[in-house]
Amino acid sequence: MNLLNQFAACRGRSLENRSILILFTLCCFYCFFAFFFNEYARLSPDEFWFAHAQVQFKFGLPYRDFAPYKTVLGYYLLNLMSLSAEPTFATLMLIKHGLAMINTIVLFFGALWLMRFFKSIAVLLSLGLLMSSELFLNYATNIRVDLFGFWFCFFAVMLLFEQRYLLSGVLIGIGFTITQKVIWYLFAGNITLLFLFLHHRSAFSFNAIFKFNIGTAFVILSYLIIWCWLADFNTVVQSVFFEASAMYHLAWYAGARYLFWSHIIYFNPILFLLLPVTLISLFVTFKMDSAYRYRFIAISMMFSILVCLIPYNQIFPYYMQVAFPVFFISYAAFFDWLFAVVAEQQKNLFFLTQKTWVTSTLLLSNLLMIVLLIFFKIPLFYFLLLSLPVILYFVFRPSKILNTALIKVRYFILSIPILFVGFIYPLIIFTQQALRQTGQYQRAHIFAAEALLKDKTDYIAGVDLLPSRSQPINGLKHLMGPAIDFLYQPTPSLRAVMLPSLDQDQLATVDSIKDAIATSQVKFYINNYRMMALPPHLKIYLQANYQHFWGSIYLYAPQFSPQNSDIFIKFSGKYRIDSYRDVYLNGMQLTNGETTYLSQGHYRANSKGDYRLVLIPTIENRYLLKKFSHDQWQLII
Known about the structure:
This protein folds into two domains: 14-435, no CATH class; 440-635, no CATH class. It is 58% helix and 9% strand. The chain has 25 helices and 14 strands. It is elongated. The N and C termini lie far apart (67 Å). The relative contact order is 0.08.
């Protein structure tokens, strides 16, 4: 017997070591891929904005010196990754690589923790699904603060497993000091604990709810007290609660919800289409099902959060960062149950409700999958997922002939949809998508723009492409969709979300922007989809004062008419004359194509036709790659 026990212990250690080795390999593979993808892909507009916003935290105090967007702990965490670095594009890569390393560490130790509750194979399979999903590969290293907060919630859920409710609430509170979106986890935690209370109806269950909320409230109140002491009370409360509420209720993106959900489900099918099936694991158990309580908490929290996300108007794909923790934990719990149920004899299963209800739910989950596949026009290939509820149906409702055949191939049947729909096909379409996300064009323009601005002049792009340089024109600093729409029609509902913390201006108009550009030192603008969406009168003004130089850069080149007898040149430098008639500046005759040096200042002008004075900048040719000479504005952001 001792020999058998020793053999079992050795075998257990061998399996554990093998699982840790596989986990380590998975995490290393993700980290290496993330480093590569960070260097390869172009950055999103929000990443540039957050990178520029976090620079303010190095030199000022939020709520006192400037209005922060979101709660502020996340910005300080971002700064830790670039504390001694100058705000350049290389700094952005440093931050993204730092985020990849943090994700890797969190997933590694989080998976080890999960292996205390679920089988190693289930945890590894769930981790593989998450790591190979388009959502995680594309958005986990985005320069944002939200995922920091959600990782705190990740560990908070596992503390709920261990009935450490106070500490779990504290982690939720810390997450809230990073992003207010953590309120969804607070809601989900309370719903889950309420279900447990209704099930047990004990003082202990009520005490759990109390401790959980006290932990969260303590951290949030501490945050508010500290910042109200350092800054103004009204400013802090306005920023933390009222601005967050205004953004949450913004309905401007409601029309794009179908498009967003189509993208999310198309690229991440198994994470969403398999959700209805996970509910079955709450109604079927078996002898020695020690993970039921953990499974109930995980799946309850996942569905509670999804209930919040489904009606949300701004469901951009990157918002699904909020679901990373619950997807990982819930699918680990589900696969742990799935392998156990399929391995068990049917007679050893226990139904917590009538068997007919369970099998009916399986059929309804298949029907729901079919509806989603048709409604979102998802490829027919994804119908493979329907085989999972089918095999579970025959596990619950055995047939002598079918069950005998299925019992031999059950794991094979289970593996096909998970392998192909969960891993292979999504990775294929992600690769196709990623090939179109190359960041070479974007980076070439950032380096060229930095070279053009060495003389301390300015630029505009509608997004902060250069972390070290602020754009000078109010109304053009952060051209989100609502901000562009506001320039067309400044309605009260749009004015309410023109927040200073988002670099918006409630007083901006087309005329005020034109006046600001006229008196500014804006040497060029960088064309992109946001600049293309500007009101026509503003685009006409830009066309009259700037001309295509290279790529998507439009350089200072003011156009004048014969009526302009007194003109003003904003920048000293060489200029080329574009005119069908001779031009006289201070009596000096200039012909078409001729170049001359002009100093900044006023000039007496005389011409019988329209003409342009095109600035010729001093810039090394190595910045102006010929392959990017044409305007491909859709590749900037």
